[in-house]
Design a protein that fits this description.
Number of strands: 15
Keywords: Kinase, Membrane, Transferase, Transmembrane, Transmembrane helix, Two-component regulatory system
Radius of gyration: 54 Å
Transmembrane segments: 174-192, 199-217, 229-250, 257-279, 285-308, 315-338, 344-363
Organism: Bordetella ansorpii
Protein name: Two-component sensor histidine kinase
Distance between the termini: 96 Å
Number of helices: 14
Strand content: 15-25%
EC number: 2.7.13.3
Length: 607
């Protein structure tokens, strides 16, 4: 409730401020000498007495004003002649001397005519006595000539009022032009980046058409530019139809094609009529003024329909500026028709208020679009977080399942290794026990224990730890071979690094090496065994086991132990070669630099 009251208070305050140009009267210097009567004459009329301010009866006319004032004493300070408002150009003479031509030092935009003048007085113009002021007033525009009351006073008495009017009549108009050009560039860029939003294009067109109101600024480049003011007014008329289109679009209604075509067709037809001379420019100006007065009322009705009937909130933002703009066009129409005195057309200023309201609507739409985008981004982020959480859950589940598969695979491998190694030794122990061979039982039992240790040790091996696994094998083999009187030479310094090593891989390698050493002792009999690692061809890793025993059969021959060596090497992605030499046997295990996941160990025979 408080926010509504606060919003209503702001709306009322904005309405009061916005309506100020319609009812506010600028202050005039009360301490200065006021000149409120003059003799007015035209070429085709005799002189007559008039009161100031005075508006001529028709535009594009010339009139002469003669006024007088008296100074009782010579002033101690310089005096100034202050003219609060005149339209458009005044040639000012004091006591027969031309003291100023306002057409040379004022910015004259064009349609909105109206300037202020401050003329310094000096020399004999400051002497006591009667002084006469002659003003030749030219009004080449579309509004009748206008001259306000005159004031004579010191700088302290009149300068503040002059500066106020300079700010309002010249600087403010230039600020409005600068704002209009800035908004034109902004809407053009927005339209180029969002061509589907045609409202930006219509707003840019409205800015472009409105700039013809400032055609008078080209008077230094085009001397007869004021002859083109009726044509500029005709071009400016298309802005009325553009406002209809914008109001319909804000209401969410598609403008009819005939209305869009009227933006160019109606002003174009008027320009052709004026150029052909079929109708005088003054009559056309009155017709244009009638259209420009009634069109804002139609636009306001369109916005009221959108606000009250269609319940479009944005139409409310446009309705209040349209109401003020309609009042301003009524004011301007009365000035053009001569029913109201004054050279200032207020519609130019209120059009900026209207354009600002449209810009606010566009910014509101942009803000709502960004809010929707932010909401969509938040929704996407939330869904992405949910998906990521789901993926993490599935990943954890898959990892747990993979761990279970690895454990199952290791259990299967352990079972197979125990079956291939330990079960065979136990069977031999049982058979030897039945025959009463105690010495063989002890030997076989030790072999079974070593085999069990080999299997258990392989379970602690990680990636790139094959050399460590082989070192453990060496520690178990060396004491046994020493008891048998067999020398062991061991070197793995030159063995290349092998990646992808798993406990299964390590067990296969150790069993191959163990089988080669066992065969050297059992079938040699060897007195010296050499185990070394080095690099083979194309960067492969090699483990070479040599003995000085009796040369044995090559690969593809021999018992189950040799066949198991071949199968284990194939599982590792490598190969085993057995070479009979004159001084013994050489077993070479060739391995790739990276081992792949080993498949099941099924198919390995029992030695």
């Amino acid at each position: 409730m408080i926010q509504r009251w606060f919003g209503a208070l702001l709306a009322v305050l904005a309405a009061v401020i916005a309506s100020a140009p319609l009812w506010l009267t600028l202050p005039e210097p009360s301490a200065a000498l006021r000149i409120g009567h003059a003799t007015f004459s035209k070429e085709d009329e005799p002189p007559r007495q008039i009161g100031l301010p005075h508006a001529q009866d028709r535009p594009r006319a010339q009139g002469r004003y003669r006024m007088a004032f008296e100074l009782a004493d010579a002033p101690a300070q310089p005096l100034y002649l202050f003219i609060p408002m005149l339209s458009y150009r005044a040639v000012i003479a004091l006591d027969g001397d031309t003291v100023q031509d306002t057409g040379t030092d004022s910015l004259i935009p064009g349609i909105t005519l109206g300037v202020s003048a401050l003329v310094p007085l000096s020399g004999r113009h400051l002497a006591a006595g009667r002084h006469e002021i002659d003003i030749l007033l030219e009004a080449p525009g579309i509004t009748p000539g206008y001259l306000s009351a005159l004031y004579v006073g010191t700088a302290q008495q009149v300068a503040p009022y002059y500066r106020m009017r300079i700010f309002l009549f010249e600087h403010t108009r230039m600020m409005v032009l600068a704002c209009q050009l800035l908004l034109a560039i902004a809407t053009l860029m927005a339209w180029l980046y969002r061509p589907q939003e045609s409202l930006y294009g219509w707003l840019f067109l409205l800015h472009g058409v409105s700039t013809v109101s400032y055609v008078g600024l080209l008077r230094d480049v085009i001397p007869d530019v004021f002859d083109w003011l009726p044509y500029a007014l005709m071009v400016n008329m298309s802005s009325m139809f553009i406002l209809h289109v914008i109001a319909l679009k804000i209401n969410g209604t598609k403008p009819p094609l005939w209305l869009c075509a009227s933006v160019a067709a109606v002003p174009g037809a008027g320009l052709l009529v004026m150029a052909s001379g079929a109708a005088p420019a003054s009559a056309m100006a009155v017709g244009v003024a009638a259209i420009m007065v009634t069109s804002p009322l139609i636009t306001a009705a369109i916005s009221a329909w959108g606000a009250l009937v269609k319940k479009v909130r944005e139409a409310w933002l446009l309705l209040l500026p349209l109401c003020f703009f309609s009042l301003a066009t009524l004011h301007d129409g009365a000035i053009i028709a001569g029913a109201l005195d004054g050279p200032i057309l207020l519609s130019l200023y209120y059009r900026q208020l209207l354009i600002v309201a449209i810009a606010v609507i566009l910014m509101r739409r942009l803000g709502r679009s960004l809010m929707r985008v932010d909401g969509a981004n938040a929704l996407l982020k939330r869904r992405l977080a949910e998906r990521e959480a789901e993926l993490r859950r599935l990943h954890d589940q898959e990892r747990n399942e993979a761990v279970c598969r690895v454990r199952s695979k290791e259990r299967h491998r352990l079972t197979m290794d125990l079956h291939d190694g330990l079960s065979g030794h136990l069977a031999s122990i049982i058979a030897q026990a039945e025959r009463g061979r105690s010495a063989d039982i002890e030997r076989t039992a030790r072999e079974a224990l070593d085999d069990l240790r080999l299997v258990i040790h392989s379970m602690d091996i990680g990636d790139r730890e094959l050399v460590a696994a082989l070192s453990g094998l060496r520690e178990r083999l060396e004491p046994q071979l020493k008891r048998l009187g067999v020398a062991l030479e061991w070197s793995m310094m030159r063995l290349p690094d092998i990646a992808g090593v798993t406990p299964t891989h390590a067990l296969h390698v150790m069993r191959i090496v163990q089988e080669a050493v066992t065969n050297a002792v059992r079938h040699g009999p060897a007195s010296c065994i050499s185990v070394r690692g080095d690099a083979g061809q194309q960067g492969a890793a090699r483990i070479v086991i040599e003995n000085d025993g009796i040369p044995s059969a090559g690969t593809g021959q021999g018992g189950a132990g040799v066949r198991n060596m071949d199968r284990r090497a194939a599982i590792l992605g490598g190969a085993v070669s057995i070479e009979a030499r004159t001084t013994g046997t050489r077993v070479t295990l060739t391995l790739p630099r990276r081992l792949s996941d080993a498949p099941t160990d099924a198919g390995l025979a029992v030695d």
